[in-house]
């Protein structure tokens, strides 16, 4: 189009716009004049309705244009606190060396000043093939086909020559491959950035996996591999969909062809058919560019996020170990008091004297479990709790004795021990139930919730699983034997 014609069109467009503006202004003035001639009540009604519309319109506009709040990353603990928690766990006999190694690895990589990128994604999306395409100078015998079962590192280079370490990890969603998946996830968190591979539309679990990584603040690239399998326009549509699905998660979505091998048949001049296998040519330029952009801040810029992700993960893993350690300690405490209750019942001389002993034991058990779960409880609260537990037990005592009686039949050894054993066994059952109910309630509620603990106690008293009864029978018999010894 010539310059003159363009100028003429622009002038016409401006004139049309001006005409429209004048027309609108004229109409508005005419409306305003008519509005002023209306009776007052109608002016107020119309004015009110217009204001409501204006407020509604502004609200909708604000809702559409409001700045999106970024989801906060998972909390990372203070390094010193974490080390203290680990050393406490270690003192209590928990094996924490894996977590200690993770901290050491965190420091080692920081001092290395190399950028780590992990290739992550479901099985057979082409991670190992892509590693091969990204590190052509290295012979990767282990990255040649087959399923990856462990984490491997490969030295590579960014397009600008900066050193890069690529991590090949096992694929996720392999049937029975949970332990490999854990390895992969941990390595992804250790990396400065993650290249997430897919080979088509994202499934729910893939989106969840991406969200999981993003929750740790991990810089992410979504790479659609095997782009050779799609026609041009299909690929565009697919990429568009992937961009929408990962809008606030991935820094970029790119399509590549990592390579891999392709098989086809070839007809020879003599009519024979030959099977041919050849390596597909890798096309990974868009990924290289996106990687260069993502890693532009360098190790200095990327390290704080990496450190936060590793510490956040260590916080979760330490938390899980603490829960386990507490549960084991609670088990030990419950067993100790169940045993003491049995011994107390067997030693009772006068009728009813055992109740005094058991009351004191229940109080001590409650105090010890509350301390284990860091739940502050006063003496009055404990007394109250024990009183209520006794009430629950009184109403259920016939059930307890009936269970004990049945157990005696099921474990003939018990019956031969004589009179007081039924009572002693009933106490084992009571203390075991009380202790477990209290421990579970304290762990979940972080408070001494009488009603919740009472509900759990009732349920446990009625739990007559053979393994549990056998364990309590053994405890009772041992106590009886030791008393006799
Ligand atoms: N068509 C096509 N096939 C590819 C491409 N890249 C890889 N493949 C094929 O995809 C299959 C899986 O490739 P791998 O590299 O082993 O996949 P992986 O993600 O490492 O698999 P796991 O280690 O089991 O998780 C192989 O048969 C490759 O030849 C590609 O760009 N196009
Ligand atoms: Mg692999």
TrEMBL record:
Domain G per the UniProt entry, residue ranges: 117-226
Coiled-coil residue windows: none
GO process terms (BP): tRNA methylation; tRNA wobble uridine modification
GO annotations of cellular component type: cytoplasm
Keywords: Membrane, Transmembrane, Transmembrane helix
Entries under Gene3D superfamilies matching the protein: P-loop containing nucleotide triphosphate hydrolases (3.40.50.300)
Regions crossing the membrane: 42-65
GO MF terms held by the record: GTP binding
SUPFAM superfamilies recorded: P-loop containing nucleoside triphosphate hydrolases (SSF52540)
Cross-referenced InterPro entries: GTP-bd, P-loop_NTPase
UniProt cross-references to Pfam families, sorted A to Z: MMR_HSR1
Keyword Membrane belongs to the record: yes
PANTHER family: TRNA MODIFICATION GTPASE GTPBP3 (PTHR42714), TRNA MODIFICATION GTPASE GTPBP3, MITOCHONDRIAL (PTHR42714:SF2)
Protein name according to UniProt: GTP-binding protein HSR1
Source species: Dyella tabacisoli
Lineage: Bacteria, Pseudomonadati, Pseudomonadota, Gammaproteobacteria, Lysobacterales
